[in-house]
Amino acid sequence: MIQTVLMIEDDERLAGMVAAYLAPHGFTVRHAATAQAGLAALRQDGEAIALILLDLMLPDADGLDVCRQLRALPAPLSAIPVMMLTAKGDPFDRVVGLEIGADDYLPKPFEPRELLARLRAVLRRPPLATPSASQLLRFGRLEIDLGARAVRLAGEARALTSYQFDLLVALAERAGRVLSREQLLDAVKGEAFDPFDRSIDVHVGRLRAAIEDDVKQPRRIITVRGAGYVFARVHDA
To answer: Where are the chain's structural domains?
Structure first.
């Protein structure tokens, strides 16, 4: 199955190299040289796009601002995975990118094989169970619709990236159990990752912002110091 990647990148030479490398591996690359062109392509043909490769430094916009705009689009466009590319090596940029909704982050220059591996990891999204399309997980006012991949709090939809939704399901399906960062990464990405990877903390922070009543005093996703996280069996009114 051929999957379409939208690459928003002003370096046409790099875009061409990426397209040529990914083609034999089941990906076709649609290139947009500006933020404006990329957003237009997404609005026009978003349902056909499996993932967005987004450069941090674009001629007409900051990539972080573009990522915010992508996440503000209506579903299902807002849930398309985003991988940020940048020549900047500052870890702060990586953290900010993840905080505003990017699913992964790859600094330039990068090995094409690493790009391919990360693309596959983001798109893999292995199901943690095989529920019926109508199955719901309910925890008081919090409702997780596995079939529709939607989350509602007190009936109000909450916007999550695909990665964050899978992370929430990984926690919720194991409610009451403490899960380490390594276990969560393994459950969401489907393969063992560096246990010292702290990006999971950023995504948990985003989840809390979406589903907690008070992010400073979380009642649903609880930190267990030195061990990981546990999803509480909350039955609030």
So the answer is: 3-124, 136-231
